[in-house]
Amino acid sequence: MQRDDAFLRAWRDNAARLLDTGDEGGDARPPQRYRTLWISDLHLGTPGCQAHALLDFLKHTESDTLFLVGDIIDGWQLKRHWYWPQAHNDVIQKLLRKARKGTRVVFVPGNHDEFARKYLHHNFGGIDVAEEWIHETADGRKLWVMHGDLFDGVIQCAKWLAYVGDSLYEFTLKLNRHLNSLRARMGLPYWSLSKYLKGKVKRAVSYVGDFEAAVAREAHKRGVQGVVCGHIHHAEMREIDGILYCNDGDWVESLTALAEHADGRLEIIDWAQRMRAGLPQQAASQGA
Fold first, then answer.
1. What pLDDT is recorded for position 193?
2. Average pLDDT over residues 92-119
3. Per-residue pLDDT reduced to its tens digit, 257-275
4. Domain boundaries defined on the chain
5. 193-200 vs 202-221: helix crossing angle, rounded to 10
6. Residue 280 banded pLDDT, cuts 50, 70, 90
7. I want to staple 132 with a disulfide (CB 3.0 to 4.6 A). Which of 113, 121, 146, 155 is the partner?
8. pTM to 2 decimals?
9. 8 Å CB contact between 15 and 96
10. Region 45-51 average pLDDT
């Protein structure tokens, strides 16, 4: 059996086992409640995944609906080299536990976990697998939810080039881990080298802008008021030609999520900032 199918079988086994498992111990920090949360690009199965920060986020937030907007599991990396520490398994168990306790969890696969697209309209341990989704906010806006790789010409037209880029990206993340290990010993906070480099390279900045504009155009054609995606590891919320473009970022570099409050207001949550503060205070991010 291929590893992809073996992983999904393990997912089901985890779900069954959790039916007889209690929740994790208490914590002095109460969870924050949201109407909806979106997270993407966790890249479980890679050393770059910030699993402990992600677990902290999942433990201290609750929502009626949780969208997993693609690249949750990095099938590309797992096929090259199997890497699955306990913290990554803990993330899967936490997601399954949320579904068991009443959170509606919707998984929209991306390009790195495209194997899950074989299981669209199926349910694994209470988690629905969908190609895309239309979410209606509390204030009546319709948001198109999808991963975003369909708007990446490299992914669609030259997948071999995407694999090369992925390998170089992993090298940068490896270097980033060593750098942050040194920073931690010096008492300095987490800092993303790859995020810094992408912000300085003109072609990368241009690519992000082109991607955002293309996604917004398609959202306009579909007659929705906004779009939520991931894929490019760049958290953003802004209006593009009348369309609210939202990217929930990632859990490799930026440690961000998109949240909807009870009144329909949206904000980008910077969890790295909250962890530095030591408590889940309200993020100083923009709202829409």
1. 55
2. 96
3. 999 999 999 999 999 888 8
4. 3-15+32-276
5. 90
6. very low
7. 146
8. 0.77
9. yes
10. 93
- Contacts for 68 with CB less than 8 Å, ≥ 6 apart: 39, 40, 42, 95, 105, 106, 107, 108, 127
Residue with the two structure tokens 């995944």: 49
Instruction: Give me the architecture of the 3-15+32-276 domain, per CATH.
Output: 4-Layer Sandwich (3.60)
